[in-house]
Design brief:
By secondary structure, the protein is an all-alpha fold. It contains 7 helices and no strands. About 55% of the residues lie in helices and about 0% in strands.
Length: about 150
Amino acid sequence: EEIETPEIDMDFFLTICPQLERYFDGETIEDSFLYPIYQVMLDIAKSSIPFSKIRQENRWKRLISLYLGHHLEKYIELVKDEKNRNSLDSEEKTEQQKDKKENVTSYEMFFKDSGEYSTTLSGRLFWTSWKPIAKYFSREYGGVYCGNTKHRFY
């Protein structure tokens, strides 16, 4: 039996990830600098988290939206470069790395096996929803990278 994949519209996505709404302001959503990345990541998310495995429309849409939100937040962070990570000043980078090591918080300990998903709000929300069901995916199907290699679920 073929299961039809539901569509996710921008309104649903922005309901789940309202922190990103300001990046889609403008005359049309399609004019946003983020919209092309949104479209690409939506295609990747749909193939990585197949509806046929979740089978609950709103749960699946929420997972897709949080996955998108995480990757869009990371893209915005890269473009804005607020932490000056693209600087060629090695002394400044060393100081940032030292600060990062000293500021390990309790939520980082909770998300220690979540890999990059612990670095954004959407990623943490995605991980708490995804982790319990990811273990049911088979390796031959493909899927989202989940944490380090010993916790990789496909």
